[in-house]
Amino acid sequence: MSTSTLSGAASASTMSRPYSGAGGPLTDVARDVACLQVMIVNAFFFGDPADGRENWVLVDAGMPFTAARFREAAEQRFGPGARPRAIILTHAHFDHVGALETLAREWDVPVYAHEMELPYITGRAEYPPPDPTVGGGAMARLSFLYPRGPWNVGNRALRLPPDGSVPHMPGWRWVATPGHSPGHVSFFRDRDRVLLAGDAFVTTRQESAVSALTQRPQLNGPPRYFTQDWALARSSVRRLAELNPAVAATGHGPAMTNPRLMHDLNDLARRFDELARPRKGRYVREPAVFDNEGVVSIPPPVPDPWPALFLAGTVAGVALATAAVTRRREDA
To answer: Are residue 152 and residue 191 in the same domain, yes or no?
Structure first.
């Protein structure tokens, strides 16, 4: 079964007002929310540039080795020496915290996450293995290579307030959306119904390398290879659909607006098991179990010859390349 393409998002239903620059492009999601796409993942800058270079918040921290991109984008938007009041996480998978340790240390700011995500940013636990058998394309197939943590920001890591408020983001609330990760959260502003959904659902087919690189807009469930509780993931999508967002910006893919957004999101909520849940895979029938210290249990792996074949192919490629270099030297 393929992931949800639903009816696809028309270009009129996506947001695309870029700022050019070395840290960009930054794309408007709302007047005070801008998206920075870093390779295949999105992070968000919340704050009015007119309010100063230290009165803003970073939501998520992108891919590894991209801290310079964040610094450049921050200075582009907020001015020289820009430094946020906090970094706030939807979750702590590697493509959302790649620059986290560097930025938290350099900016010396707190990092807020749901308490179930704290073990993965305080050096205490790593995530369970991803599932490369769920299908959908190269991004899924290669997921056995992806980092699982832990990362460590030390005592800068703080729990999101239990009352649902979001530090330094007045008017926003966090919404528990577990399933893709144990403590995944999304952020919602009731005033204009702007949703930062993280990976609770995404707006490109993230399992496919082609879709991930081209960012072709289509609303899908959470990335399959890292989703480890499908029943919770389904409930989370339904919870977000009930918010009736006007704009949704996700961890992967372009921001999406109405009317296409709610048409596709309601369809996904109603037909989640058909459109998003894989037919087979390690976590499809039995979820991973977590507590606030990390992983409690995981189901056994399913047979998958790909990692061994990949390793054998890599070794063979290196051997052939080495032999070719040796022959050239002997012939010289």
So the answer is: yes
Query: What whole-number distance in Å separates Cα of residue 251 and Cα of residue 255?
Result: 9
Residue 198: phi and psi, rounded to 5, are 60, -130
Is the same domain home to 212 and 321? no
Residues in the chain with pLDDT values less than 50: 1-12, 16-24, 310, 312, 314-323, 325-326
Give helix 230-242 / helix 260-270 axis angle, nearest 10°: 140
Q: First and final CA of the chain: distance in angstroms?
A: 54
Question: Could you give the angle at the alpha carbon of 310 between the alpha carbons of 304 and 312, nearest 5°?
Answer: 110
Determine the 3-state secondary structure of 275 from DSSP: helix
Cis peptide upstream of residue 254 (ω within 30 degrees of 0): no
pLDDT, position 89: 99
Residue 310 domain boundaries: 304-332
Do 74 and 45 meet the contact criterion of CB atoms below 8 Å apart? yes
Q: Is residue 6 part of a domain?
A: no
Output the furthest CA–CA distance in the chain (Å, rounded): 73
Query: Residue 317's pLDDT is what?
Result: 45
Same domain, 185 and 222: yes
- Number of domains comprising the chain: 2
- Say whether both 255 and 106 belong to one domain: yes
Contact 202, 252 (CB under 8 A): yes
Residue 222 falls in which region: left (phi positive, over 0), alpha (psi -120 to 50) or beta: beta
The reply to whether 72 and 182 lie within a common domain is yes
Q: Are 72 and 218 in a shared domain?
A: yes
pTM: 0.86
Cβ-based neighbour number of residue 134 at 10 Å: 25
d(CA 297, CA 288): 6
Same domain flag for 39 and 140 = yes
Evaluate whether residue 5 is within a structural domain: no
User: Taking a C-beta distance cutoff of 8 angstroms, is the pair 104, 156 a contact?
Assistant: yes
Whose CA is closest to 58, among 66, 46, 48? 46
